[in-house]
């Protein structure tokens, strides 16, 4: 399984993220994913730069690692035709190292344009149309589209990269797997669910296995108690699950929804402290569930350089061993 590093825009500013990207490549990570948010989950995280500007800079500060959005919502803040243009540009800048990760989005980021927040079934309809539009533009030439949610009139990508941009889509259950497996190149999920992986491969055209990409937060640090406090302060939102997380409109909502989450609750779900074995165990659960790629999140914007040294010296050799 390929091991990646998360450039988490919610916990670092743009210049720091570009530096961490270069550091993660040097440390030996196989790929890097970047979140695409308008707002952090919690005020304590404190950041949210524009992911696509940062990605452009990262293409020039790295040479080897694959890059990926994890994930972009191509339905409200961004029209899918514009997402296709951005993805093609990043692919050209990175010499073919980019994968476009897409998802149905969260109210946290999409409510800012003032159009309201549609129910989950409508969001999936919109995402399916967006994938069709993006794929059509990647085909080259002028493209027109008239759907229930989007219209595209005579659009063309004038700078298509030599290598077509692969599309990965975030799924959470059978309904989304059935809808997106036939039209996407790879699957994104956040839980080590073997049945989800199997259903994805079975739903692919021809039943061929494809990439399945996941993410795991860790709060590494020599002081376990400090690592637990940091994880609780900045990542207690994670335990709500995506059905809840997609609906809350802002950091205040997440603070209220998680006010009774205890540090020990977070520590039970997220590896905290210096224990490599627990990280290896939880990574192994994703591998056993059929995932081909896993991106680690180190919690804490001021902990990244120390974590990258730890990853290079100890963690990555342990995972690959």
UniProtKB/TrEMBL annotation:
Keywords: Oxidoreductase. GO terms for molecular function: oxidoreductase activity, acting on paired donors, with incorporation or reduction of molecular oxygen. Gene3D superfamilies: Luciferase-like domain. InterPro entries: F420-G6PD/mer (IPR050564), F420_G6P_DH-rel (IPR019945), Luciferase-like_dom (IPR011251), Luciferase-like_sf (IPR036661). Residues 1-292 form the Luciferase-like domain. This is LLM class F420-dependent oxidoreductase.
């Amino acid at each position: 399984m390929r091991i990646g590093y998360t450039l988490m825009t919610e916990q670092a500013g743009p210049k720091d993220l570009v530096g961490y990207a270069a550091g993660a490549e040097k440390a030996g990570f196989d790929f890097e994913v970047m979140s695409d948010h308008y707002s952090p989950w919690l005020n304590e995280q404190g950041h949210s730069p524009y992911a696509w500007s940062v990605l452009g800079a990262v293409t020039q500060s790295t040479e080897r690692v694959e890059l990926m959005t994890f994930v972009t919502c191509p339905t409200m803040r961004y029209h899918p035709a514009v997402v296709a243009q951005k993805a093609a540009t990043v692919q050209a800048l990175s010499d073919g190292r980019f994968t476009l990760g897409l998802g149905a989005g969260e109210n946290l980021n999409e409510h800012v344009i003032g159009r309201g927040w549609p129910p989950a079934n409508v969001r999936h309809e919109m995402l399916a149309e967006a994938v069709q539009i993006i794929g059509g533009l990647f085909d080259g030439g002028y493209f027109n589209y008239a759907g229930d949610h989007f219209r595209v009139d005579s659009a063309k990508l004038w700078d298509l990269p030599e290598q077509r941009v692969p599309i990965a889509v975030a799924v959470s259950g059978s309904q989304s797997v059935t809808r997106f497996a036939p039209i996407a190149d790879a699957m994104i999920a956040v839980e080590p669910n073997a049945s989800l992986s199997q259903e994805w491969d079975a739903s692919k055209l021809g039943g061929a296995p494809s990439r399945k990409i996941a993410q795991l937060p860790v709060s590494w640090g020599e002081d376990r108690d400090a690592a637990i406090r940091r994880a609780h302060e900045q990542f207690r939102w994670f335990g709500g699950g995506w059905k809840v997380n997609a609906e809350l409109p802002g950091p205040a909502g997440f603070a209220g929804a998680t006010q009774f989450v205890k540090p020990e609750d977070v520590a039970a779900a997220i590896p905290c402290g210096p224990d490599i074995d627990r990280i290896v165990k939880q990574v192994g659960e994703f591998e056993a569930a059929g995932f081909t790629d896993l991106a680690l999140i180190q919690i804490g914007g001021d902990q990244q350089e120390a974590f990258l040294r730890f990853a290079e010296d100890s963690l990555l050799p342990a995972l690959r061993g």
